[in-house]
Amino acid sequence: MPLFRRPKRWASLVAGLALTSILLTACGENSPSILDPAGPIARSESNVFWIILIIAAVVFVGVEGVLIYSTIRFRERPDSPTPPQIHGNTTVELIWTIIPAVVLLAVLSVTIKGIFDVATPPANSNKTIEVTAYGHQWWWEFYYPEYKMTTADTLVIPPHTNVHVKLYSNNVIHSFWVPALTGKTDVIPGHDNEKWFSADTADKTYVGICAEYCGTQHANMRFDVKVTHDNNDFLSWAQLQQQAAAVPAPGSLEAKGQEVFKNQCTTCHGIVGVSQSTPYLQDPNPAGRCDDPTKDNGCLIGPNLTHFGSRHLIAGGVLDYNQQDCNPGGDLSNCNLAKWISDPQKVKPGNDMSVNVDKSDLPALVAYLESLK
Ligand code: HEC
Ligand SMILES: [Cu+2]
After folding, report:
1. Tens of pLDDT, residues 248-258
2. 197 contacts 183 by C-beta, under 8 angstroms
3. What PROSITE patterns does the record point to (predicted)?
4. Rounded to whole angstroms, how far apart are CA atoms 252 and 91?
5. pLDDT band (50, 70, 90) for residue 24
6. Residues β-bridged to residue 149
7. In this structure, is the dihedral angle defined by the CA atoms of residues 27, 28, 30 and 32, taken in order, positive or negative?
8. Could you tell me which of 129, 131, 250, 345 has the fewest CB atoms within 10 Å of its CB?
């Protein structure tokens, strides 16, 4: 009897599977990938992945090969004699104990090296910046203790610099992940984690993700990591962020927007120079953190908006901030900022922003927020 009764069917099944996997690979074009590392930490992690994958592939092909070969070659035929019994054969026992032990030792050593790599500053630089990342439901806040400035949704870093991130949450567990730059680390209330990473390409933006299910809008808790052109570029950005908010000209549309902001938004949002004097009142040490975000001016429940006009994402990346479509004097129907302010619950159901903005106040608010460069 032939081994495969319908060789053609088998051939089309195998070809179909191969084609699907090629097609599925193509899906990843623009999505973040651990296979395209852009910094030493991610590279070390991706090395561990590749080495283990290759070892596993060799073992898989070897074992399955021998299995398939012996199934075919030594299959039972009419009148075949009982095969020799090798149970308890010392040589065989030794071989199949020693080989796996050696293979697992190799995997262990690669893994241990990886663990040390990610726990220490990447060696490619002697510069370091400190960042505190707060996981909120559902957006990321980034505080730079050395610069006393805070931003949301986009973490800006200089290239070739060790970034030391302290990870805090006072709500639920999140997970900080930038596939191209660093693997996942949980952000756990009451248990402060930290991590290192570094980017070696300038002028690039990488996608960051919350990798732990943290509630209904978990998937809209995205952030960007923007790597500046060089350190000076970063410093001039930082200098801008450290300043108090732009002051609108008296009588302007922006000034009207600021009034609306003061009346309706300051319970949840801070703007330095308008509703608070410093972006963050407490240093990021556990004792100084407030656990009731609505009670402390320093950790309000919404993102700090002092320089919102210089950002490009809205509310955990649920919308892009398309400023070119936001002309406060004209049509705002395609303006994502106007969409967000007029109905945040429609855009991101369940999020913590609830407002009731009068339609006639929208252009002023949009103009004001846009002026906050
Ligand atoms: C009850 C609290 C609350 C009030 C009041 C509030 N917001 Fe918000 N706002 C939030 C929260 C929380 C977020 C983040 C939501 C998320 O991403 O899940 C947010 C996000 C935003 C963002 C996006 C910021 C960013 O960096 O992504 C803007 C802009 C904004 N709010 C504007 C306003 C304006 C203008 C008002 C007043 C008309 C206002 N908000 C009133 C809580 C509030
Ligand atoms: Cu999260």
Report:
1. 999 999 999 99
2. no
3. COX2, COX2_CUA, COX2_TM, CYTC, PROKAR_LIPOPROTEIN
4. 89
5. low
6. 144
7. positive
8. 250
Amino acid at 39: G
365/283 Cα distance (integer angstroms) = 31
Instruction: Give the Å distance between the CA of 134 and the centre of ligand 2.
Output: 10
Distance 12 CA to ligand 1 centre (A): 54
pLDDT confidence of residue 285:
45
pLDDT at 122: 87
d(CA 28, CA 46): 16
Each residue's pLDDT tens digit, 34-45: 888 999 999 999
The DSSP secondary structure of 53-84, one letter per residue, reads: HHHHHHHHHHHHHHHHHHHHHT---TTPPPPP
Spatial CA neighbour of 137 closest among 19, 44, 46, 218: 218
Question: Looking at ligand 1, which atom is closest to the CA of residue 354?
Answer: 1
Residue with the smallest CA separation from ligand 1 atom 34 is 265
In terms of phi and psi (left: phi > 0; alpha: psi -120 to 50; beta: otherwise), the region of 190 is left
Q: Which atom of ligand 1 is nearest to the CA of 352?
A: 12
d(C-alpha 249, C-alpha 240), whole Å: 19
Beta pairing class for 162-168 and 128-136:
parallel
Ligand 1 pocket (Cβ < 6 Å) reads: 138-139, 152-153, 217, 261, 264-265, 267-269, 301-303, 308, 311, 314-316, 340-341, 348, 351-355, 357, 365, 369
CA distance 171 to 77: 67
Average pLDDT, the chain: 87
SS3 content of the chain, % helix, strand, coil (to 5): 40, 20, 45
pLDDT at 13: 74
Structure tokens at 186: 């949980």
What's the pTM?
Answer: 0.85
pLDDT tens for each residue of 121-140: 887 677 899 999 999 889 99
